[in-house]
Structures are given as C-alpha cells and as structure tokens.
Amino acid sequence: MKAYIFGAGAQGRIVHDILVDSGISADILFIDEDPKLFNKSINGSKVVGDLRYLLRQDPTQAQIHIALGNPILRLRIAEKIKRHGIPLLNVIHPSAVIMETVVLGTGNMIGANVVINSNTKIGNTTIINTAAVVEHDCIIKDGASISPSVLISGRVKVEVGAFICSSAVILPRRTIGEYAVVAAGSVVTKNVEEKTLVMGSPAKVVEKLGKNFDWRRVL
C-alpha cells in the first residue's frame, strides 16, 4: 500500500510529518504538478509525479491526502480523484483529541493538539490545524479550513470552503458562509455571509470576495 500526498509545499510537509509520527506502515510518496520537483526528496519522501501519474495507479493499492491550502483547488482535485476510485486518507496527529461521538468524513487533516468535542460532524477534505478547538454539536462542511489556535464555540456551522485564520474566535450558534474568510484574531459575533472577508473584534465585513480572490493572502 502507498500513501500519496498531493502537494509538496508547506501543507504537504506537515501532513508528511503527521503520517510519520502516527506510524503509518504504507510507503509515503508526494504528488505535485511542478515537474521541477519530480524525483526530489521532501522530508525523506520522493516526489514521484503529477496528477496524471496518480490516476494511473491501482486504486486498491493507493490512498491519497490532498495537502493544498486553497480550498477551491483542494475540493476540485478531490472530486477528480474520487471519480477514479482512489480513497481519500484522513491524517490525524496522535495528540489530537476526537470524542467518540464525532462523525468524521474522509481526506481530512487534523493537526497536533486539536480538540473536537461531542457530536460534531466533520465533512471531507477539511483542514483543522494545530491546537484548534471545535466545540460540541458543530458542523464543519467539505473543504473548510480551520487555522492554528482557532476557537469554534458550540453549535457553529462552517460552510463549504470557508477559511478561518489563526486565533479567530467564533461565538456559539453562528454560521460562516461558503468560501468566507475570517481574518486572524477576529471575534465573530454574527453570521458571516458567503464569499466575504470579515475582520476585527467584533468582526465586520471589509471585502466582498470575487472569483479572482488570491488565496495566498491567507495561506
């Protein structure tokens, strides 16, 4: 069995090291679209090819984690891979605390010292990064990104592709809309509309996000 990581950048290196720390028995290999990286070693594992290479592999002998910060790209590539029958791999740091009643999808990354509390539902291909806390009865939908040290209070809904930056606080029963961005350190006291950037304490809308939004601003 081979464990592939799509993306040989910073997120991919984090995923790689979590897999190593968790003692995975599969061979760890990188997939990346940059041909300059082919055959190079990243943290001790080889970059073997691009997406076309991956899709030629036997799906019964492979699993893949998509390690891309951009939620739109992450979801788009996940859809292509699922159509070819390659299973998406959850990557969970051994120090994470996930309550037994949590419902967890596939292809998620859960970082070191994360806490996910009772009866929360996590979709697919999400990132829940170092020391984030997701309290009880939350819903975290596909492709959402929760950055280090974020605090999500109980009964919060984070919609598809939403991005919550480091150390933000979301008060109970709030909704973060699809592909919305919550800036670092913000305190969200009201629902956040889809495709908006909110900032501050309390968080207020500072920008409407168009299709050309540069996700590198928050990565």
From TrEMBL:
Database matches in InterPro entries: AcTrfase_PglD-like, PglD_N, Trans_hexapeptide_repeat, Trimer_LpxA-like_sf
Domain PglD N-terminal residues, every copy: 3-81
CDD domains: LbH_AT_putative
Binding-site residues, substrate: 69
Superkingdom of origin organism: Bacteria
Pfam entry (one): PglD_N
Increases basicity of active site His (site feature) positions: 137
Active site: 136 (proton acceptor)
This protein's name: PglD N-terminal domain-containing protein
Organism listed in the record: Candidatus Roizmanbacteria bacterium RIFCSPHIGHO2_02_FULL_38_11
